């Protein structure tokens, strides 16, 4: 992602003041810089924001095979932002989001931080989430691949923990616009570990992250990858969109190339940055709150107080049963907070 072209400071402030009156509540809390970025990069126009949302909502009737269990303005807006306000593309992503969950129901049962599998993955640092954002306002996620203890965490549970983390983070409108960066450190990742990354589970991850989630990924950075990770990347390339392929960077042990894209002041020392080494429990403590423990014997109390607070009654009020298949009418859909 290239540098952001913003108006000169005095013009930007004048534009901001002039837009205050027409800014919708859906943009409340966004900085002037982020609103300008949304206009320039995403084609977001506050004058027609509600019309854009309604156009996507009107397409729901075309997919009676899918239960669209959340259709409020704020929810649909994140899909529009992820697809630069192309309504048809945004609706396709919205449909794939719910279809992925229908096709993989087991993944989304008890889809919250105190689920035993998700809990173990979070405690083991899957994913890591840096507190501060980079110079473009993007949130940086970390994966230390060698920490995957396959006797303790299944790949599916790690994927569930990543998806749950993204669900929490994407509630922030600034991140809907600025997006995310993913850095994967392959140091000491063994061939035996790599052999567990089968085409089927890699495809499951790609479908969940690339095709079915409303997040803007500005880059996926591989660091210290061995030859067999190069081979795996070749294997999954056919499943990647051209846009995704262009945003995957294979740095090897060349941290200078990483620093050209992400400044060292935003990175922990493991990546040659100026920040302290990353604490693997940081993000787990954020989700689990004061009862977090790395011992396996904590009680979940805080996650429901996080950003995602859609209860079953909210969902029932927001969705039309006519859009759900018979089997779905008896399924409690696993939104965070339920």
UniProtKB/TrEMBL annotation:
Example of a GO biological process term: lysosome organization
Topological relation to the membrane, as annotated: Peripheral membrane protein
Gene3D superfamilies in alphabetical order: Alpha-tocopherol transfer, CRAL-TRIO lipid binding domain, N-terminal domain of phosphatidylinositol transfer protein sec14p
Listed GO MF terms: phosphatidylinositol-3,5-bisphosphate binding
GO CC annotation terms, alphabetical: clathrin-coated vesicle; early endosome membrane; trans-Golgi network membrane
Compartment annotation: Cytoplasmic vesicle, Clathrin-coated vesicle; Early endosome membrane; Golgi apparatus, trans-Golgi network membrane
UniProt KW keywords: Cytoplasmic vesicle, Endosome, Golgi apparatus, Lipid-binding, Membrane
Matching SUPFAM superfamilies: CRAL/TRIO domain, CRAL/TRIO N-terminal domain
Pfam families: CRAL_TRIO, CRAL_TRIO_N
SMART domains: CRAL_TRIO_N, SEC14
CRAL-TRIO domain location: 118-279
Main location: cytoplasm
Family matches, as InterPro entries: CRAL-TRIO_dom (IPR001251), CRAL-TRIO_dom_sf (IPR036865), CRAL/TRIO_N_dom (IPR011074), CRAL/TRIO_N_dom_sf (IPR036273)
Function: Required for normal morphology of late endosomes and/or lysosomes in neurons. Binds phosphatidylinositol 3,5-bisphosphate (PtdIns(3,5)P2).
Record-linked PANTHER family: ALPHA-TOCOPHEROL TRANSFER PROTEIN-RELATED, CLAVESIN-1
Protein name, entry field: Clavesin-1
Species for this entry: Callithrix jacchus
Lineage per the UniProt record: Eukaryota, Metazoa, Chordata, Craniata, Vertebrata
Recorded name of the encoding gene: CLVS1
